[in-house]
Design a protein that fits this description.
It is a single chain. Helix 2 (14-30) runs antiparallel to helix 6. By secondary structure, the chain is mainly α. It has a single domain, classed as Growth Hormone, Chain: A, CATH 1.20.1250. The chain is built from 16 helices and no strands.
C-alpha cells in the first residue's frame, strides 16, 4: 500500500477533535500547578495565597459563568465559535506567562476560565447533537478517560517545564492552536437555534449534583493527599497515590462499555457511589501507604463510572436545541467540584489531614440515604415547613 493510500486513515476524526478540545480544557489548572511555588517566589517574594488563588480561579469562573456561556454559545456559529474559544484559551493561557504581578496573572486566569468554559460547551454540545445511542456512549466514555489521563500528562509536562522557570509551563496553552486549526476543517452541525430555550432543571438537579459531588471527592485526592501523615514526608509516594486514583479512573471510563454488558446501569451507579464513599472514609482513616492506595483506587473506580454515565443521562434528558445550555451546566458542575474540594481542604484540614475525607464521606452517605428515602420523608418535610411557617 502506498503512502498516498495511507493518508486518509491518518486524518483526524470528528470525535478525535472533540476529545482533543476537551483535553485542552483540562490544562486550565494542571499545566501550571507544579510551578505555583516558583510563581509565588517570583511575584510575591515567598509563599503567598495568591498563587493558589490563581490556580483555582479558572475553575471558579467556569463554575459561575458556565450556564450563561452555554446559552450564549448556542446562538453562535458552532465552527467559528469553537475556533474562537480555542484561540482565546491559548491567548489568555500564554498571557499569564508574561505577568509582572498577580493582578495581571489573576485577570488572565479569569479570561482563561471563561474561554475554557466555552470550549467545553462547544465540545460537549457537539457530542450531544452529532452522536446517538451506543456511539454517543462510546464518545462520552472515551472523553472522560482522555480528560483524566490528560490531567496527568499536563501536570508532568508542567513539572518538567517549570524547571526552566515558572513562566515556561504557560507555553502548554498554545497546544490549543493546532486543535483550533483542525476544528476549522469540520462542518459542525449546530443545534436548533432557540434563544429562550433552556434545559429542564427539574430533571437535571440530581445528575448535576452527582457530578459535582463525585468531582469533589475525586479532586480532594490531589488537593489533600500530599498532606496525609503516611506520605507527607515522601512526595514520591504522595504522587503515586494521586496517580493510582487517576489511572484507575481513566481505565474504568475507557472500559465502561464492557462493564455495562455485565450489570444494569442503576446497579453500576449504586456500586460506584458506594466505592466513592468507602474510598473517602478509607482515605480519611488510613494510616499506611497501602491503605491510601486502596482508597485512591476505590475513589478512582467510582468516579470513572459515575462521570460518563451521569453525563450521558444529562445529554439524553434534553432536546438538541438545549445542548449548549446543558453543556454549560455540566461544565459548571464539574468545576464546582474542584472549587468545593479546595474549600473543604482549606476549611477542615485544621482538624487533621484526613478530616475533609471523613466529613465528605459522611455527607455523601447521608445525601444518598435521604435521596433514596425521599418519597417517605417528603410528608415529614411538608409537615415541618407548615409548622415552622
Amino acid at each position: 500500500m502506498s503512502v498516498a493510500e495511507d493518508l486518509p486513515t491518518l486524518a483526524p476524526s470528528r470525535r478525535g477533535v472533540i476529545w482533543a478540545a476537551s483535553a485542552c480544557a483540562v490544562m486550565s489548572g494542571a499545566a501550571i500547578a507544579p510551578a505555583v511555588p516558583l510563581m509565588e517566589e517570583a511575584l510575591a517574594g515567598g509563599a503567598s495565597v495568591w498563587g493558589r488563588i490563581a490556580l483555582v480561579l479558572p475553575a471558579f469562573a467556569i463554575m459561575l459563568a458556565g450556564p450563561a456561556i452555554g446559552r450564549r454559545t448556542a446562538q453562535m456559529d458552532q465552527r467559528k465559535g469553537f475556533i474562537a474559544a480555542l484561540c482565546a484559551l491559548a491567548g489568555f493561557g500564554i498571557l499569564g506567562g508574561f505577568a509582572g504581578g498577580f493582578a495581571w496573572l489573576l485577570m488572565s486566569r479569569i479570561g482563561l476560565g471563561l474561554a475554557t468554559a466555552a470550549v467545553l460547551c462547544f465540545a460537549t454540545a457537539a457530542i450531544a447533537v452529532q452522536y446517538q445511542g451506543a456511539e454517543r456512549a462510546e464518545v462520552v466514555n472515551r472523553q472522560s478517560a482522555i480528560n483524566t489521563f490528560g490531567g496527568v500528562v499536563f501536570v508532568l509536562l508542567g513539572g518538567l517545564l517549570s524547571q526552566m522557570g515558572w513562566r515556561v509551563p504557560f507555553v502548554l496553552y498554545l497546544m490549543a492552536l493546532p486543535v483550533a486549526f483542525v476544528v476549522s476543517g469540520f462542518d459542525w452541525k449546530a443545534p436548533v437555534r432557540q434563544v429562550s430555550a433552556r434545559p429542564d432543571l427539574a430533571t437535571l438537579k440530581t445528575p448535576l449534583a452527582t457530578i459535582a459531588l463525585a468531582m469533589t471527592a475525586f479532586y480532594l485526592v490531589p488537593v489533600q493527599a500530599p498532606f496525609m501523615p503516611a506520605v507527607r514526608d515522601m512526595p514520591a509516594l504522595a504522587g503515586l497515590t494521586i496517580a493510582a486514583a487517576t489511572l484507575v479512573s481513566g481505565l474504568t471510563s475507557w472500559r465502561i462499555a464492557a462493564l455495562m454488558q455485565a450489570v444494569r446501569e442503576e446497579t453500576a451507579e449504586a456500586a460506584a457511589m458506594a466505592a466513592v464513599i468507602l474510598g473517602l472514609m478509607e482515605f480519611g482513616l488510613g494510616t499506611s501507604v497501602p491503605a491510601l492506595l486502596i482508597a485512591a483506587m476505590l475513589l478512582g473506580a467510582g468516579f470513572g463510572v459515575l462521570l460518563p454515565l451521569t453525563v450521558r443521562r444529562i445529554m439524553a434528558a434534553g432536546p438538541p436545541e438545549t445542548a449548549n445550555a446543558t453543556a454549560g451546566l455540566i461544565a459548571s458542575a464539574l468545576y464546582a467540584g474542584q472549587v468545593f474540594a479546595s474549600l473543604l481542604a482549606l476549611l477542615l484540614s485544621a482538624g487533621g489531614a484526613g478530616t475533609p475525607f471523613v466529613v465528605l464521606s459522611l455527607a455523601l452517605a447521608l445525601t444518598v440515604f435521604l435521596h433514596a428515602k425521599r418519597d417517605r420523608l417528603r410528608p415529614w418535610g411538608r409537615w415541618i415547613a407548615q409548622n415552622i411557617a
